[in-house]
Amino acid sequence: MIDLSGKIAIVPGSSGAIGSAIAEVLIECGADVALCYYSNREKAQQIVVKARQLGHRARADRVNATNFDDVKRWVDQVLKEYGQIDILADCVGLGGAVEMELFKDQSPKKWANILDLELMHCIYFAHAVINHMISRGYGRIISLGSDGAKVGESGLAIAAAALGGVNAFFKSLAREVGRYGITVNVICPGPVDTPSVEEFKHSEFGHKIIAGMIRNIPMKRIAQPREIANAVAFLASDASSFITGQTLSVSGGLTMC
Predict the structure, then answer these.
(1) φ and ψ of 97, to 5 deg
(2) Does residue 127 carry a pLDDT above 80?
(3) Lowest-pLDDT range, 95-99, 121-125, 230-234?
(4) What number is the average pLDDT over the span 51-80?
(5) How far apart are CA 142 and CA 179, in angstroms?
(6) How far apart are CA 241 and CA 243, in angstroms?
(7) pTM above the 0.85 mark?
(8) Nearest-angstrom CA–CA distance, 77 and 71
(9) What local confidence, expressed as pLDDT, does residue 190 receive?
(10) Smallest Cα–Cα separation from 173: which of 223, 116, 113, 133?
(11) CA distance 118 to 137
């Protein structure tokens, strides 16, 4: 039902569990893709192979998302090869590197890296594409956030603060660029069935947290990555043309705000 034929999507963070699902769904909906990753080259290349088998253009490159010059250089390369960028589906984040620790016990040395990975990279990618999208009078910008940014999250205070900044940044950007036919939205997942969550569940602390979350989710389960990806594909499509500045929770009702 979602048709992205003829669209070019860039997907930073496409080698993670959620990012790879998003890239695959965008391809299945008809988009050509440019993927970037930092550490998991094999997964990104698998998606490239799948895209080409389905007759779509695809490339995957290693990019340091926390370095603006690296981000800008890659976006310019994609524009030179593909001629346009219609969709920015930003999936970069801490992922498996997330470490739950009470704020009182945290080392300040960790904070800058968390802010770079969760907030600053979003600003870099948005800035790299926005003037191109304005000149074309079209664009879809979607970023992965978290429900923790809306309600807070014990053990992840700095990450929640950074993701709260993501919400505020993209709402502000949506106000600036709506007149140019560009929509800007954030997807806020609840707990998702990823390898890092599965590993976390096996610790005594993690098991209690995940079990408590499931008890509070009206649907009584956690999300599958493709359920997040389906929401991204909708916001990337013309079916969502009058939706902008939103932080959409995809959490089975865990949060309703």
Answers:
(1) -85, 0
(2) yes
(3) 95-99
(4) 97
(5) 17
(6) 6
(7) yes
(8) 10
(9) 85
(10) 133
(11) 28
- For residues 204-220, average pLDDT: 82
Phi, psi of 145 (to 5 degrees): -115, -140
Query: pLDDT, tens digit, for every residue of 135-171?
Result: 999 999 999 999 888 888 877 899 999 999 999 999 9
Choose among 89, 83, 80: nearest CA to 9. 89
Q: Rounding to the nearest 10 degrees, give the CA dihedral for residues 88, 89, 90, 91.
A: -160
With b meaning 16 or more CB within 10 Å and e meaning fewer, what string describes 85-105? bbbbbbbbbbbbebeeeeeee
Q: What is the dihedral of CA 52, 193, 233, 97, to 10 degrees?
A: -80
- For the segment 107-136, the average pLDDT, to the nearest whole number, is 95
By the 8 A CB rule, do 158 and 114 touch? yes
CA distance 206 to 193: 13
Q: How many residues does the chain have?
A: 257
Residue 224 token pair: 């599958």
C-alpha angle 75/78/83, rounded to 5°? 120
Instruction: Report the pLDDT averaged over residues 61-89.
Output: 98
The sign of the dihedral angle between the CA atoms of 217, 257, 118, 185 is positive
Q: How confident is the model at residue 197 (pLDDT cuts 50, 70, 90)?
A: confident
Strands ordered across the beta sheet of 32-37: 58-62, 32-37, 8-12, 87-90, 139-144, 182-189, 247-250
